[in-house]
Amino acid sequence: MRESRRKQIMDSALELYATEGFSKCSIALLAQHAGISKGLMYNYFNSKEELLAAVIEHGMNEIMLLLDPNSDGILQTEELEDFIRKVFNNMRNNRKFWTLYVSVILQPGVKELLTDTPEVNYMERFFPLLIGYFENKGSKDPYLEVLTLMALIEGFGVLMIYSYPAMRIPDEALTRFEERILKMFI
Question: What is the 8-class DSSP label of residue 170?
Fold first, then answer.
């Protein structure tokens, strides 16, 4: 029950942070939007910053589980292909979530707030796995390969923000983009 309520609060906060902006949200407003009292909110999160870190950490942990499902620290070709397919499938099936998520991360002050938070610094977790993958594949410039892959995937997330909900990117276009990325990196 506690985890269910925590998830409800985090989902509600993500929506409010994305629509109202992180800086405009107070604990009282976040509690009201989640349909709970301010006092109950403090039973789950000490501050709006802690709530934001939990939302970001949850999203990044889900992505990390997709990238290295066996948590061995080594990325195999099958794992990278599966990761790319699952990320795009998740984007297709959870457009609203990813639109909200990316829009929150890009807000002024959010990155600075999370900079020294190791559990949400996902780049430090992604890069070694991906660098190792491209090194093992014999890439002349593994770092450039990682930057290109990340820019393509994250860039699509930004594109989703600008198009949602007014313009829905057709699933077949998303699938073609996914296949292009797979062809480039697998």
Answer: P
Structure tokens at 164: 């949602």
Specify the residue for token string 């589980």.
Answer: 65
Interhelix angle 95-105/2-20, nearest 10 degrees? 60
- Tokens 């860039």 correspond to what residue? 155
- The owner of tokens 């393509």 is 152
C-beta atoms surrounding 13 within 10 Å? 26
Q: pTM for this structure? A: 0.76
Q: What are phi and psi of 138, to 5 degrees?
A: 85, 20
Closest CA to 22 of 34, 33, 30: 30
The C-alpha angle 134, 67, 14, rounded to 5 degrees, equals: 130
CA distances from 48 to 14, 29, 37 (A): 11, 10, 14
Mean pLDDT of the chain: 86
Q: Smallest Cα–Cα separation from 123: which of 97, 149, 95, 100?
A: 149
Q: What is the structure's pLDDT at 170?
A: 80
Percentage of the residues of the chain whose pLDDT score is greater than 70: 94
CB 63 within 8 A of CB 98: no
Q: How many CA atoms lie within 13 A of 67 on its CB side?
A: 21
Q: Has residue 131 got a pLDDT over 90?
A: yes
The pLDDT tens digits for 65-81 are 888 888 888 899 999 99
